[in-house]
Design brief:
With 91 residues, the protein is mainly β. Helix content is 10%, strand content 30%. The longest helix has 9 residues, at 78-86.
């Protein structure tokens, strides 16, 4: 059985965009932090649903509500930093 919430506040995540570039972001909230009777601000990136997180993308700061399945946890190891450095995307 998988964990209910995979990502938490201030977790660093990344994704590969349609152009093949790595985009880095930081989790601002997950669906655990938003109760069902609380209304999220739609202007700030949409409503939170189960299995989704709100991510602020680097360097623009644009916030997006995205499925946890569409992002990967950034484990800061040599392989990821080396790969990211090669494409000028390392933080």
């Amino acid at each position: 059985m998988a964990a209910e919430h995979q990502y938490f506040y201030e977790d660093e995540v990344y994704r590969i965009n349609k152009k093949g570039n790595i985009e880095f972001g930081m989790v601002l909230e997950n669906s655990e932090l938003v109760s069902s009777d609380e209304n999220s601000d739609v202007e700030e990136g949409g409503r939170m649903r189960r299995g989704h997180v709100r991510v602020a993308w680097h360097p623009t700061g644009v916030e997006e509500v995205i499925s946890e399945r569409r992002v990967l946890y950034l484990i800061q190891n040599k392989n990821i930093c080396t790969y990211a450095f090669k494409i000028n995307a390392c933080l």
